[in-house]
Write a structure and sequence with these properties.
The protein has about 325 residues and is α/β, with parallel strands linked by helices. Helix content is about 30%, strand content about 20%. The chain has a 10-stranded mixed beta sheet with strand order 1-2-4-3-5-6-7-10-9-8, sandwiched between helices. A two-stranded parallel ribbon has the order 11-12. β5 (about 160-165), α6 and β6 (about 185-190) form a beta-alpha-beta unit. α1 (about 10-20) packs antiparallel against α2 (about 25-35).
Length: about 325
């Protein structure tokens, strides 16, 4: 079967003009000869979504990542959310559990899932507890930043609306990214994670996970405050909930800000306390959600992925809502 011939708008106008002028032979010849220039594909209608592997290489090494491009993307700059999985997870597992790709279709943004290989950590954990992976332009922070920059270059993401989020070890890595690259990320999401610098070796990592980090160990933020949303279950037996408190306070630059506290419940057995932190100009710079009865799991996630609890408030939806309220250009140093 032959492929249907598509005429450009200019060709159609020319055929109609020839027919109007009574030049039917010329009009038929124009139709037979086909278009004078190839039609331009309209990606706004019917373009399928894509979820493919890519690779980034830098002085710090090489990493694969999966990039989700929503259906119907027409090439115009979209926000980008970088999602950092937890231990024993993969990009596909994390995407399924958080349902972030479905939200990307609804809210129009790109989603990147860097992959931590077993060669870097036998449990696929991001090495948030190693000093060399807590410093700008070194180790894993550099690799994750390079994933982000490559997408900005190759896929025309909106550099004013770039965000990073993660679960557990990925949440701790997201905290590090917000601290080390405040000029790259407009906001950060930390789910069941730890503050930047909570540990500097494996022994200290397990101690911090059990009881939080000693206050003296946590670095004081000296750069700009990066708006941060924190989710943590109060029944988390893997990462003590005090780590959520520490991550939230570190991100907001300390306790000296106004807060607004509210309470709610999902109707499925999970109540929550939501604290909004404001800076001295009354801008919301942080949110902390403490989820009563939730363990070490992505709140409101899908059972199709690991480490999820569908009963809780929709962490993915709240992260996206919070992210899209913030732009890099709106932040003051």
């Amino acid at each position: 079967m032959s492929t249907p011939m598509l005429l450009s708008r200019a060709d159609v106008i020319e055929v109609l003009r020839l027919a109007r002028d009574g030049k039917l032979v010329e009009a038929m010849r124009a139709l037979t000869d086909g278009p004078t220039e190839p039609p331009v594909a309209d990606h706004r209608e019917g373009a399928p979504p894509s979820f493919d592997y890519h690779t980034v290489a830098s002085a710090a090494g090489e990493r694969r990542f999966k990039l989700y491009i929503p259906a119907g993307h027409d090439g115009r700059p979209l926000p980008l959310i970088v999602m950092l999985h937890g231990c024993s997870q993969s990009p596909d597992d994390f995407a399924a559990g958080t349902r972030m790709n479905e939200l990307a279709d609804e809210r129009r943004f790109l989603v990147a899932y860097p992959e931590q290989p077993k060669s870097a950590n036998p449990n696929n954990c991001w090495n948030w507890f190693k000093v060399g992976d807590q410093i700008r332009d070194l180790g894993e922070p550099h690799l994750i930043a390079e994933v982000t920059r490559q997408i900005l270059r190759d896929h025309a993401a909106d550099e004013d609306r770039v965000y990073v989020a993660g679960l557990s070890a990925g949440g701790a890595a997201a905290a590090i990214m917000g601290t080390t690259y405040p000029d790259l990320y407009a906001a950060v999401g930390i789910h069941s994670g730890l503050a930047c610098g909570a540990a500097r070796d494996m022994h200290a990592a397990f101690s911090a996970m059990r009881q939080g980090a000693p206050a003296a160990r946590l670095p004081v933020r000296t750069g700009p405050v990066v708006p941060t949303i924190v989710f943590h279950g109060d029944r988390d037996e893997t990462v003590n909930p005090v780590n959520g408190d520490q991550a939230s306070e570190q991100a907001s630059g300390g306790p000296g800000v106004r807060t607004n506290v509210s309470h709610g419940e999902t109707g499925t057995g999970i109540a929550f306390t939501r604290t909004i932190r404001f800076d001295d100009q009354e801008r919301a710079i942080g949110e902390q959600w403490v989820l009563q009865g939730l363990g070490h799991a992505w709140s409101g996630g899908s059972v199709l992925g690991s480490f999820t609890d569908p009963r809780g408030p929709d962490a993915s939806g709240e992260f996206v809502r919070f992210f899209l309220e913030h732009r890099l250009s709106a932040r003051s140093a």
